Amino acid sequence: DADVTQTPRNRITKTGKRIMLECSQTKGHDRMYWYRQDPGLGLRLIYYSFDVKDINKGEISDGYSVSRQAQAKFSLSLESAIPNQTALYFCATSDSPGRGRGNEQFFGPGTRLTVL
Amino acid sequence: AQSVTQLDSQVPVFEEAPVELRCNYSSSVSVYLFWYVQYPNQGLQLLLKYLSGSTLVKGINGFEAEFNKSQTSFHLRKPSVHISDTAEYFCAVSGGSNDYKLSFGAGTTVTVRA
Questions:
Q1: What is the percent of chain A where pLDDT is above 70?
Q2: Can you tell me whether residue A30 is helix, strand or coil?
């Protein structure tokens, strides 16, 4: 079984709709992240969470919100989707510092979101 | 803050030929460096990483990379590629053991042809 799972894998929605993307992990990591990938731009950080009570904005958080329901679950919401939020979204996890991994992150398979 | 530049957006290469993907970073502190691969319709998978020690790092699937501090580079190489190496490759940098953030380059698409 995959260590980091994302649902749904694909979603098509309309402008103005609320959308939730979900991420679950079985790696036991404290830290979780949401990224979006756009062609030619690499991955950009939307939100990150160091534990259930510690959630922080990344570089492109406008138009998004998150919820850390448990150590293993981290959801990303688009309150009112717009076409320029069409992208590939990735969830990732990492150990806390000092575990020798240098912030190596482990990625889910991605969710392809299309906003019409 | 760190930033990453991948110098080639597209690299076509013939099967069994060598390939080099170039990555330069900018940072004012010591860094950790990573190469990830994304196969079509999949998530990112770690190829290799540099944390400390030997500057030549070996990874999975026959890839290796060399950390060059004076040139702030971390180029990825493979001496002989296969069709299955067709993928997008991302270089990423983290600014030290307490830095939460990975900064990614824009990616290099490698297309291997028979």
A1: 93
A2: coil
